[in-house]
Amino acid sequence: MAEEKNERAATFARLYDLQEELRQRERPRLGRPPKRIKRKPTTVHLTAEETQTLGELHLSVKRHFSVNRSELVGLAIEILAGLIHEDGSTLLDDETVTDLRAFKKRLYEIIKS
After folding, report:
1. How far is CA 3 from the centre of its chain?
2. Do the Cβ atoms of 66 and 35 come closer than 8 Å?
3. Region 6-31: what's the mean pLDDT?
4. CB of 61 within 8 A of CB of 53?
5. How far apart are CA 69 and CA 46, in angstroms?
6. To bridge 50 with a disulfide, which of 23, 46, 80, 104 should be the other Cys (CB 3.0-4.6 Å)?
7. Where do the domains of the chain lie?
8. 61, 67 in Cβ contact below 8 A?
9. Which is more confidently placed, 25 or 39?
10. pLDDT higher than 70, residue 41
């Protein structure tokens, strides 16, 4: 007899959970819809100049379409990775690139050419 009650309770609980799940699906979500691309939160330490540049870039791009700073940073990473591995070789194989300053200089040379 005790087993029958447990089975009924479990069955009712399962039905209740299913009903709640169906209600959640029917209910429209409030607020902004989620972005298509999930982003992992991370911390980036920027200098005051880099922060100002990112803010200015964000404002100028935001005038044309909706974008957030994370998307701009992601785009910068993609572009940098594309430039490094552009022709199958890597810019880092160049013997003149020994530090960040030289790397930045080499990237500017490629962009200008």
Report:
1. 50
2. no
3. 66
4. no
5. 13
6. 46
7. 48-112
8. yes
9. 39
10. yes
DSSP 36: S
Amino acid found at 4: E
Q: What percent of the chain has pLDDT over 70?
A: 72
Q: Do the beta carbons of residue 106 and residue 97 sit within 8 Å?
A: yes
Give CA torsion, residues 67, 62, 77, 91, to 10 deg: 150
Q: Give the separation between CA 43 and CA 69, rounded to whole angstroms.
A: 13
Q: What are phi and psi of 95, to 5 degrees?
A: -70, -20
Note the pLDDT tens digit of each residue in 54-79. Answer: 999 999 999 999 999 999 999 999 98
Q: What angle do CA 99, 101, 107 make, to 5 degrees?
A: 105
DSSP codes, 67-85: --HHHHHHHHHHHHHHHHT
* Sign of the Cα pseudo-torsion (54, 60, 61, 62, in order): positive
**H or E element, residue 56:** helix 48-62
Amino acid present at 62? K
Q: What is the mean pLDDT of the chain?
A: 79
